[in-house]
């Protein structure tokens, strides 16, 4: 017996079916191909920043040489983002549980600590001990990492840097200048260069941190090694007169035109290029610049003409000239969920070989032990390596203990401090407000 | 067909899927975002409710005040520039260039299709002082004026932004207003001319009132676009120097995605939505009154 539906009911059913099908199609289209799981990785994915080329190049070298076996099992895949976008990218990936196997862990240690607290960062001390390679890390690098990351080893020391002022020996000699030992001598040397038509300092105002590092340098020399720890602990404020004094000194250099024209528009590469092409007498920078100094294509003045001096002493200050700001570069860590045996093989290989590869092929100093004899690329590299090995007390940098917001505010306003669009007091107040906001 | 469309259930069934999809992709995220305004946290730490704390913070936050002031100032100046430049160009096309305007229209429209980042870089180079002297500073130097660090102070960088955005978008408004002017009947213009109206008098008494509807539409487009400006500022100044060129959109983006404070970021987004809504309402009311009076 055939059953015939009434036409109105048939029409309604057809419409309902059409609607349901279209919704199902839409739902399927929106579904995508499924989120990637960070467990059991198929690649040794590494998210880094565009600006840092040394680590990714050294890892690529290892993947073809000493770590080829690890690479065959888990191929290295490098992805980069501009440093300014790193924090956004990490937060989004972390929110989606899609962090890569290895990643640059944020511009401020605060973000890494946040990631670690939520269980997304591997306990590297335990992992390295389990793999039997913990002793491949330099003790000084471990202590710097722990000072930064709340007493825990949350990043690997792909770099181990001290900071100071690189200067052009030839320019200094031609202008009868000695290496300044005090702040006043440094300002006098800058004045001499300015009168001779040579730009005294090369600095990137676009990045901001090369300028704020000078503020913290002055603070450490004038107020002692705990100057910024006191701010972090609430015992002092950046708006206190003795802190504002540091900003005033750096602003005065800018007011006199010692950073050259348009410092706010100068990016990192341009600042480096100005110094390495002999257009500026001095450059405040970390020892990672040794890679650029060793590179004959970049360094037009010759590595033999580059010297390194510590940030000078402030007369009557509580700090000492042999206390160096140190860091481990951009913190690079490993995801907790994707750390399996194959990842472990890679990490073991890196711990044993990275120090040699970085120094030999890139003239870069890392916090991994150098297990074979490597001849230094030049005199200044030897000088910096000696300084690192004999340095007795390290200090951090201006933003090291700041929140992400205070770090951004500090670095984006640094150019205004030296161009005069912001007074030293305003600058310190703005950063202090950002510190208080989070 | 009439029987089907007369049936309420059929209408509900036809509209249902579209309404559902619209609700899912438009209304739900908006309500969701509003919900975030009452929370604190981010995707790493999770979210916790914090009542109206974000709203009171909004009132006290000097960065919001600065961003709101910059947004309004930028919207007013750029809207005036875009619409006035567009209107003058449209008048030029219709009354002077006439049929020969196609090439000029294309050339003036060209920046509209250029990627914003490319335009930003172009203007950076154009106004730069270091490491190379840009063309603008070269001209200044040639007439004996020292180079100006246009990106170093809030005052000068604001005007570079204004010039860039007007240059970038005036072609779009010119075409839009050109289409409006073409709609004015030739007989009306001819009779006005016979009555002795020429030049500015013709524009003031005939062309302007008759092109008011499209002029008001341009104004609404422009105001909303400039209040929500983001890409051109990120490309040219990234909000700097300091926060001198940070509009509400960029501050909202930084708060949410750089500082990881999604709740407060949503509150800033809500403020921007309210500002856009209010300004649009004001423009619509003004345009309605003008039309009835006209």
UniProtKB/TrEMBL annotation, chain A:
Gene3D superfamilies linked to this entry: Periplasmic binding protein-like II
The UniProt record lists the keyword Cytoplasm: no
Cross-referenced Pfam families: SBP_bac_1
Signal sequence range: 1-29
Protein name: ABC-type glycerol-3-phosphate transport system substrate-binding protein
Listed PROSITE patterns: PROKAR_LIPOPROTEIN
Organism: Streptomyces rishiriensis
Domain of life: Bacteria
UniProtKB/TrEMBL annotation, chain B:
InterPro entries: MetI-like, MetI-like_sf, UgpAE/MalFG_permease
Domain ABC transmembrane type-1 as annotated: residue spans: 68-283
SUPFAM superfamilies associated with the record: MetI-like
Keywords of this entry: Cell membrane, Membrane, Transmembrane, Transmembrane helix, Transport
Keyword Zinc among record annotations: no
Pfam families: BPD_transp_1
Signal peptide: none
Topology within the bilayer: Multi-pass membrane protein
Transmembrane regions: 12-32, 74-96, 103-123, 157-182, 202-223, 262-284
UniProt-annotated location(s): Cell membrane
Stated family: Belongs to the binding-protein-dependent transport system permease family.
Protein name from the UniProt record: Raffinose/stachyose/melibiose transport system permease protein
């Amino acid at each position: 017996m055939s059953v015939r539906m009434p036409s109105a009911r048939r029409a309604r059913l057809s419409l309902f079916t059409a609607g349901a099908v279209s919704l199902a199609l839409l739902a399927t289209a929106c579904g995508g191909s499924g989120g990637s799981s960070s467990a059991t990785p198929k690649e040794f994915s590494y998210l880094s920043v565009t600006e840092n080329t040394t680590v990714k190049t050294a890892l690529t070298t290892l993947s073809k040489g000493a770590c080829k076996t690890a690479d065959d099992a888990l191929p290295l895949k490098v992805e980069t983002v501009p440093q300014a976008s790193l924090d956004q990218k990490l937060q989004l990936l972390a929110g989606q549980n899609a962090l890569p196997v290895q990643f640059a862990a944020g511009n401020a240690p605060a973000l890494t600590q946040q990631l670690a607290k939520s269980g997304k960062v591997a306990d590297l001390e335990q992992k390295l001990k389990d793999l039997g390679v913990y002793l491949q890390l330099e003790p000084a690098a471990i202590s710097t990492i722990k000072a930064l990351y709340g007493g825990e080893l949350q990043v690997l020391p792909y770099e181990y840097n001290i900071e100071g002022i690189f200067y052009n020996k030839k320019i200094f000699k031609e202008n009868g200048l000695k290496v300044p030992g005090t702040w006043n001598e440094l300002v006098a040397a800058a004045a001499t260069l300015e009168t001779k038509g040579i730009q005294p300092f090369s600095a990137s105002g676009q990045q901001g941190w090369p300028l704020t590092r000078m503020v913290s340098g002055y603070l450490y020399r004038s107020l002692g090694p705990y100057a910024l720890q006191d701010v972090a602990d609430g015992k002092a404020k950046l708006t206190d007169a003795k802190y504002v004094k540091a900003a005033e000194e750096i602003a005065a250099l800018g007011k006199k035109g010692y950073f050259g024209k348009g410092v706010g528009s100068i990016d990192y590469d341009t600042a480096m290029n100005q110094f390495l092409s002999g257009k500026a007498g001095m450059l405040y920078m970390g020892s990672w610049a040794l890679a650029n100094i060793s590179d004959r294509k970049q360094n037009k003045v010759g590595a033999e003409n580059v010297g390194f001096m510590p940030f000078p002493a402030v007369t009557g200050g509580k700090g000492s000239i042999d206390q160096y700001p140190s860091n481990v570069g951009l913190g690079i860590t490993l995801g907790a969920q994707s750390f399996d045996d194959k990842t472990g093989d890679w990490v073991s290989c890196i711990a044993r070989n990275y120090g040699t590869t970085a120094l030999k092929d890139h003239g870069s100093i890392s916090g991994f032990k150098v297990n074979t004899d490597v001849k230094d690329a030049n005199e200044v590299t030897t000088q910096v390596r000696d300084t690192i090995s004999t340095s007795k007390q390290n200090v951090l940098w201006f933003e090291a203990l700041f929140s992400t917001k205070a770090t951004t505010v500090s670095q984006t306003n640094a150019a205004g401090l030296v161009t005069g669009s912001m007074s030293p007091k305003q600058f310190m107040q703005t950063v202090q407000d950002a510190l208080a906001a989070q | 067909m009439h029987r089907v469309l007369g049936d309420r259930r059929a209408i509900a069934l036809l509209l249902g899927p579209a309404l559902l999809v619209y609700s899912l992709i438009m209304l739900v995220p908006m309500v969701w975002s509003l919900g975030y305004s009452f929370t604190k946290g981010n995707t790493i730490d999770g979210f916790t409710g914090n009542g109206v704390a974000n709203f009171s913070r909004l009132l006290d936050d000097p960065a919001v005040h600065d961003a709101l002031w910059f947004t309004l100032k930028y919207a007013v100046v750029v809207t005036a520039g875009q619409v006035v430049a567009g209107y003058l160009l449209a008048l030029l096309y219709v009354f002077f260039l006439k049929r020969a305007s196609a090439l000029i229209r294309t050339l003036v429209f060209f920046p509209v299709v250029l990627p914003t980042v490319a335009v930003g870089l172009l203007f950076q180079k154009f106004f730069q002082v270091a490491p190379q002297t840009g063309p603008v500073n070269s001209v200044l130097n040639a007439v004996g004026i020292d180079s100006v660090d246009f990106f170093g102070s809030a005052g000068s960088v604001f005007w570079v932004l204004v010039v860039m955005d007007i240059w970038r978008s005036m072609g779009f408004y010119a075409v839009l207003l050109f289409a409006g002017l073409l709609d004015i009947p030739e007989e009306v213009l001819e009779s006005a001319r016979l009555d002795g109206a020429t030049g500015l008098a013709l524009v003031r008494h005939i062309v302007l009132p008759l092109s008011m509807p499209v002029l008001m539409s341009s104004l609404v487009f422009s105001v909303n676009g400039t209040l929500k400006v983001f890409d051109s500022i990120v490309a040219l100044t990234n909000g700097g120097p300091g926060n001198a060129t940070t509009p509400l959109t960029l501050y909202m983006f930084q708060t949410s995605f750089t500082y990881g404070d999604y709740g407060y970021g949503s509150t800033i987004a809500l403020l921007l939505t309210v500002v856009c809504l209010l300004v649009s309402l004001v423009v619509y009311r003004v345009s309605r009154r003008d039309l009835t009076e006209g």
